[in-house]
Amino acid sequence: MRVLPVGDRALLVELSDGAGAQALHAELLRRRAAGSLRVREIVPAARTVLLDGLDEPGRVTAELPGWEVPPLPARAGDILEIPVRYDGPDLADVAAHWGVPVAEVARIHSAAEFRVAFCGFAPGFGYLTGLPERYEVPRRATPRTSVPRGSVALAGPYTGVYPRASPGGWQLIGSTDAVLWDHARVPAALLSPGVRVRFVTGTSPREPSTTATAAGA
């Protein structure tokens, strides 16, 4: 763990891997809820966590490396179900990379339980972890100039859903009608860090309960 100052009231904490960043994010949220940490924003990324608006950055800098940060529990909070059609143009390429029949891609992906590790790229876009390491896939050699809104895609260890049409180089395996970002909704983003997600076929979107949404920053 490395703690770096960012201005007068913010810290950037660097971790060795994504699991460490997710575990620290959860611990920071717990301490803020308990009142032992006063901070305005807690923003996780792939291997970092940003704390912005700290009341006592010096104290946190000194104490944080000595914290005992428990690993993430296997299950915490309700599951947000996202309906998906496994009809993406890269299904065959993903199947070949995995060494399985095309139909197995849908079965493997829908059987996994995902967790939103962090958000970025576009409003409403979440980076979801949950597939075993052997199912990691590379980005496309040539990105598409336009990926349709609602595309369910894979890249590296992550699954993501494009909240709007945009260029992109991820492998497209499916599509969904779920609305990932709606400025008229509270909260506007369907996905937030810490939320558990499962992709299902033949159902309507089911919003997470307060327990699940409270896991976000």
Supply database-style keywords:
217 residues, alpha+beta, four-stranded antiparallel beta sheet, four-stranded mixed beta sheet, elongated
Note down, in words, how this protein is organized.
By secondary structure, the protein is α+β, with helices and mostly antiparallel strands. Helices cover 21% and strands 27% of the residues. The protein is built from five helices and 13 strands. Helix 3 (91-98) packs across helix 4. The two termini are 20 Å apart.
> How large is the radius of gyration?
18 Å
Number of helices: 5
Strand content bin? 25-35%
Distance between the termini: 20 Å
Which parts are unreliable, with pLDDT below 50 for 5 consecutive residues or more?
203-217
Instruction: Please tell me the overall pLDDT.
Output: 90
Structural class by SSE content = alpha+beta
Write down the secondary-structure element order.
EEHEEHEHHEEEEEEEEH
Can you count the beta strands?
13
The level of helicity is 10-25%
